[in-house]
Write a structure and sequence with these properties.
Layout: H1 2-16, H2 33-46, E1 52-54, H3 58-70, E2 80-84, H4 89-92, E3 98-101, H5 104-119, E4 134-136
Length: about 140
Amino acid sequence: MNGYQKFKGYKDALASGGQTFDESLIAIADYTYDSAMEAVSQLLDEGDKPTAIFSATDEMALGVIHGLQDRGLSVPDDVEVVGFDNTRLATMVRPTLTTVVQPMYDIGAVSMRLLTKFMNKEDVAEEIVVLPHSLEYRNSTK
């Protein structure tokens, strides 16, 4: 579900920016470092070199960075990379990773409140809650 929401968000952002969706720019991985290394290799083999890559997790972004570096490409000079989750890995890789920051504590607190309401059969006005997020800019982007 989480991966689907990120993918839907990507497509929605393209549409709102007047851009067309190009399936050839998508590489599917299974949320692991190794699968991301394979996916970026496949992406580079099959088409033009991308200028930027967004990964669904920080772990996969590390696989992307290392996969690009293994091919002799520089991050961010040749390809910029963005991750998602702002885990400790984001600061442990070189270059450090630009990543989407989620309010993890708030996600847990809101989830618990909703769960309690559902368990008590209380009315829930909004079942979908969108919490603020931000982008932590580091050295994997210019």
